[in-house]
Amino acid sequence: MTEPLTPLLDRIHSPEDLKTLAREDLPQLSAELRDEIVRVCSVGGLHLASSLGATDLIVALHYVLDSPRDRILFDVGHQAYAHKMLTGRRGQMPTLKKEGGLSGFTKVSENEHDAITVGHASTSLANALGMALARDAQGQKHRIAAVIGDGSLTGGMALAALNTIGDLGRPMLIVLNDNEMSISENVGALNKFMRGLQVQKWFQEGEGAGKKAVEALSKPLADLMSRAKSSTRHFFDPASVNPFAAMGLRYVGPVDGHNVQELVWLLEHLVDLDGPTLLHVVTKKGKGLSYAEADPIFWHGPAKFDPATGEYAPSSAYSWSSAFGDAVTELAARDPRTFVVTPAMREGSGLVRYSQVHPHRYLDVGIAEDVAVTAAAGMALQGLRPVVAIYSTFLQRAYDQVLHDVAIENLNVTFAIDRAGIVGADGATHNGVFDLSYLRSIPNVRIGLPKDAAELRGMLKYAQEHPGPFAIRYPRGNTERVPEGTWPELEWGTWERVQEGDDVVLLAGGKALDYARKAAEGLPGVGVVNARFVKPLDEAMLREVAGKARALITVEDNTIVGGFGSAVLEALNGMGLRVPVRVLGLPDEFQEHATVESVHARAGMDTAAIRTVLAELGVDVPLEV
């Protein structure tokens, strides 16, 4: 692709450079930023539509505020590509989500202009509240602006933070980046007049001074006038009765989120007002790119494409998410008790077809993982067999609900845990490397790691036919397609030998099994066990192999702290068996963004690393795999 001409953007290396531009130049700058975002994202795997939609807003925020002294927070952070470019990172944009390169989200340790490290939704408002309290406690005067939208406001954490923000009344600006619907309707000229009036500092100061003067004369009269003013405002101004106003926030909007000059004017009048203010801006995902505007869901994070035409090479690969979606769609046709719940991950979890075939047995609760799990608990209490389709990293946010609402009463809830293990480019905030550890700690929860789509189906069928909570974890990536109607019979808690050998035995399940099988190829005496169930373990087979082997090696795509290897060691200790065990997996540290293969190699758990350990244990391992 020919690089776009960006004469204005070429002049900007920091927010200070941005402030040298005339306001009339800002629309052109936004257009140049969007062209650059499209060029950068055309390599595939990056967040396109959201970043295009937030560009004008980001330009306006940096034009008015003084970052990094003023703090600009982005919820999730995937829409902040323009922010990265305006804060000195334009030259590094080709390294986005690559090993050693820029994060795909905002990250405190990456740049001083990144106020928070994010990747999960709905966290910006609580962060902003904490920053406002710290600022005031230390007698500081800087401004705080939190940008939230793109579904994040559906999260209970965001709503709870709003409630406290309104109650405490600390000065801050909340920008609701609304790219789907308006909360309050425009009502013509009167609405515009009220919007303009309520942002004027003199109006706010005059209103406050008048209230104090009347209170000095008569408190009852002041209360009466306050109620009269409120009633009048409710009559003329529908925006004043919206839920934000009810929480104690000053509400302004909705306004056009792509009129950058109007946004600058509004922000200049809003950022220094007393108390919390919410500015409601309406934006369009994919702004400026016709095919992305037409289908923002597809273009949220597209594969490699031609920027000029939007053409891309469709993938013929069969993902684990698709394997789950196909299986649960078929299962629901067989069992009317099946009901799928997801927290805003219909596309990502492979549920588009399911939602169309079984619309009355499908619930998307938005970005509210705790609600998803507890709603499933309620369904189970009434005789349904709910399946919670959720990413491993997001299930972390519902740990208490799994324990308190599902496991204590041993309810029939199945957790289909996608993106388990290292996910690669999205990095530390999205790696699903803790679920084996935190789920193992919960009584009644049983855990399976299918090696392929057939085993996934067998586990799902077993879980739906037996009592209690089940967790089935599978990785990001692809697997082999299996025919419809494939439902292998599995006994939960049983392992299988996939390569005979009793000298040194490799125990691994899921993604890690692939590494173990390749490492053992051509090595007589090295056995491989598909340890597809982590809870319960197959203690009969474990006792058998431990009784014969010189050493065992466990391999897992999970932290080694409390994971599969720990489970094996605990079981052997309980059996009184003493056999050397080498535990391979992810170390006790956060894994930054890189390819899955690179992270696994760095962690010492890939094929080459396993062969190295085998050699250390005295196995004759050829130099070449």
What does this structure look like?
This protein has 25 helices and 17 strands. With 625 residues, it is α/β, with parallel strands linked by helices. The two termini are 40 Å apart. It is 40% helix and 14% strand. The strands form three sheets. Strands 7-6-8-9-11-10-15 form a seven-stranded mixed sheet, with helices on both faces.
> Largest sheet, described in full?
7 strands, mixed
Mean pLDDT: 89
Per DSSP E runs of 2 or more residues, the count of β-strands stands at 17
Rg, Cα atoms, Å: 28 Å
Strand order of the largest sheet: 7-6-8-9-11-10-15
| Cα separation of the termini | 40 Å
As an assembly, this protein is single chain
**Helix vs. strand class:** alpha/beta
Estimate what percentage of residues fall within beta strands.
Answer: 5-15%
Helix content: 40-55%
Task: Give the SSE map.
Layout (H helix, E strand, L loop, with lengths): L14 H4 L7 H16 L7 H5 L1 H10 L6 E4 L6 H9 L34 H14 L6 E6 L6 H13 L3 E7 L9 H11 L2 H17 L1 H18 L6 H4 L3 E7 L3 H11 L5 E7 L7 H5 L25 H15 L3 E5 L9 H6 L4 E3 L4 H13 L3 E7 H4 L3 H9 L6 E5 L16 H6 L5 E3 L4 H13 L4 E4 L22 E4 L4 E5 L2 H10 L5 E5 L2 E3 L3 H10 L2 E9 L4 H12 L5 E6 L9 H8 L3 H10 L9
Parallel strand pairs: 1-2, 2-3, 3-5, 4-5, 6-7, 6-8, 8-9, 9-11, 10-11, 13-14, 13-16, 16-17
Antiparallel strand pairs: 10-15, 12-14
Helix pairs in contact: 2-4, 4-5, 4-12, 6-7, 9-10, 14-20, 16-18, 21-25, 22-23
